[in-house]
Write a structure and sequence with these properties.
Order of helices and strands: HHHHHH
Strand content: under 5%
Largest sheet: none
Number of helices: 6
Number of strands: 0
Shape: elongated
Distance between the termini: 111 Å
Amino acid sequence: MHRTRGKVIGVVVALAATGLLAACGDNDSTATSTPSTPARTTTATTTSPAASTPADTGQPAPAPEQPPATAAPERPQPVPTEAVPPADTSKLTDKDKRFLDELAKQGVTPSTPDIALSIGAYVCQGTAAGASDQDLMTFVNAMAGSDPSFDPAKMPVEKAGQIYVTTARATYCQ
């Protein structure tokens, strides 16, 4: 009889525990909405029905509005080289033309002279300011690689950057 009483008490305790746990919630173990908190302000305001919390209306708070999902973030498309207008070479100095001609001889053909001249001017200013070759190369490689006409299949960006630096120092920074 003592064993039966122990079993009965064990079953009763198990049922009571199950009943208490079941009464604590609706067995929903996942969050389905973001809990809202009332807005706190320093001035007296009235609460509109749209800003009520679940305790105010007895209804669950509406899920926050989500922006529409997109497949992938937009990426800028490269500008086709034929879309770049021809440059006005009549305003170029002899030094500009010499620099551009030397770049072309070494296989670097920028989409516009302005790009190459900007890179050349950067090299000259950086060299005059005492910038390290590593710092110069980092920025020159970035500028050369961002040129729409740059083709990494023809030459690595590091080689194009080195051509810009040596050519600018030899022909443009004088």
